[in-house]
Amino acid sequence: MDFGGGWTDTPPYTLREGGRVCNVAIDLNGQAPIQVFCRPIAANEIRFHSIDQGDGERVTSFAALEDYRNPLVPFALPRAALCILGFTQARNPGRTLEDVLSDLGGGVEVTLLAAVPKGSGLGTSSVLGAVLLAALERFFGVFDERHINTGELYRQVLQMEQMLTTGGGWQDQIGGVAGGVKYAVSPPGLRPNLAVYQLDPWLFEAPEAVERYTLFYTGATRLARNILQEVVDGYNSMNPASLFTVRRIGALADEAREAFSLRDIERFAWVVRESWKQNQLVHPSTTNEEIESMLGAPGVAENHQAMKLLGAGGGGYAFFVSESGEAAERLRVGLERWAAGRPSGGGASGSGASGARVVALTLNRVGLQVTVS
């Protein structure tokens, strides 16, 4: 979850002016929501399987593996990850994918689990990309913790997103890979030189603070690239209003860092509220009629002091801060009533027709874990 500085991590702005972001790694309902499993198989092929989507695919050629450029192509992320690791025709001239896998002793089955809806605002694709790369690098024996400590893994994900034409910055992968509460910064330059600083986690561990927070899935999804492209156009045109707003958003990362360092929840609430305001100035579709109806619903409007949609906005998850634990409980009731009254949308049963629901969040202190069994 990002609370200040989002958009300053996105090229070309971050390359020209540098970026800084304050974000937090979380588990949802007590579980790490993104997992990748790799296992060897005898056949000289690559198999993809998605647990949450119930889908699968066999890849037997470099041409099929390199067909990742459309982000709507099934398993585009693992295709791109394998290409980054060298599984391309250009890196293996005159050879087939079967030849290369045979030399390695066989193929690989890659299984994905992403218990977060697409368009959630929680950086799902970037975090999944980082987990994929780490799992595949460990499977092929090239993973090194220094890939994280030097920022190389974060840059690989940035490269992957440019390959997929989805765009994006570096903060989402840092948010999920590095556990805890972080302040990440990169100076101007063509190659992001990332530094990640751990902050005091008290505001996401102390019961008197955590009881005031609510994480709510709105049931509305969006593809961040649609907003991203127009924001990037604003950078490239050197629009004064766009540049001023993004610089203001960058300053909010510093304000968030101060709030965490001082354990000041009221200051943190102000950062959340101001971040939502500035995000709306960056792009008008950050909010919409559906979101505004939620914020104005009985039991919702009067029971939160700050709110922001996470990520690029337009839907996905909303983070609320209430004035007390009691107000937060009333807020959750109001949100659930709003969700129950929404039009049919094909969501989960028992959570409103659209799938809108309250989700339990806990601070993840560990971040990325790579294990072998």
Helix proportion of residues, in percent? Answer: 25-40%
Q: How many helices?
A: 14
Q: In terms of per-residue confidence, which ranges show pLDDT below 50 for 5 or more consecutive residues?
A: 345-353
Sheet with the most strands?
Answer: 4 strands, antiparallel
Backbone shape: globular
CATH fold type of the largest domain = Alpha-Beta Plaits
Within CATH, the superfamily of the largest domain carries the name GHMP kinase, C-terminal domain
Alpha carbon gap, first and last residue:
30 Å
Mean pLDDT: 90
In spatial order, strands of the major sheet run: 1-2-8-9
Taking Cα atoms only, what radius of gyration do you get, to the nearest Å? 21 Å
Tell me the name of the CATH class of the largest domain.
Answer: Alpha Beta
Number of distinct beta strands: 14
- Domains counted in the coordinates: how many? 2
